[in-house]
Amino acid sequence: MSSKPTSSSPVKSTGLHVGAIKPGVAKKDPILVADHVRRQFGGLVAVDVEHVEIPRNAITALIGPNGAGKTTFFNLLTGFDQPNEGKWSFNGKSLANVSAYRVARRGLIRTFQLTKALGLLTVMDNMKLGSTEQSGEKLSASLFPLIWKKKEKEIEEKALEILQRFKLDTKKDDFAASLSGGQRKLLEMARALMTDPELVMLDEPMAGVNPALTESLLEHILGLKAQGMTVLFVEHDMHMVRHIADWVIVMAEGKVVAEGAPNEVMKNPAVIDAYLGSHQDIDLGTVTGRITLPKISKEK
Q1: Which of 35, 48, 141, 299 is the most buried (most CB within 10 A)?
Q2: Residue 228 predicted with pLDDT over 50
């Protein structure tokens, strides 16, 4: 059951699982379910996920050491790679052998650790490319502006509204190549919203971001949930995860080894030994000056 965010501060979702918490625990309302997904590169097994469910209308963090298989798992779920075996579904419909662009059209959008903004196009053109069902993209229809002009205007209005929300509207006519790393992250997230997704998957959204923009990115991630979307993201800053995630899934050597509410996962001895190490009691964000974390109300 998901709690609605208040106007003052976001409220964490609780009661997401069914039964005892363990790797692969069932969720009350899963939006994505994966079974026996395995990806092998030669003799290296990069992903070997027996079962995992992602709760709907919540923010789930996927954590684990480098090489744990997190990005490969993202690639498999979104059609950018194919597994050696396994099946997975989104909203109850199979995504096995579905190409990446068709996955996106079904409402599952992902961003990348290295941003994919098209540098020689303007910010506005990058946004417009994210929109689907553009009649003007068909050769026959493109010859008749009356067919697509109205739709084009609607797309531009929607793009501008989203850019204003991300404080990128003043950059709309600038080339994407001129944006800072953090602004490109914002643009990629903003462009993802052009498809009105149900599930947004963010691969290390904070990687390489100037501290001045980190808090803004955090607020936008929380904002996705407030707008009714589900978020699954990869992140290495455990204290940031603790503050914004409703649920945490831990991967190691391609497998899901633990999951649960953030505070409980942080106490798991196996997670501490394998990942957090000697820093588990230190707020890394405070030490590095990377981020001022938004205040989160206590779980109910």
Answers
A1: 48
A2: yes
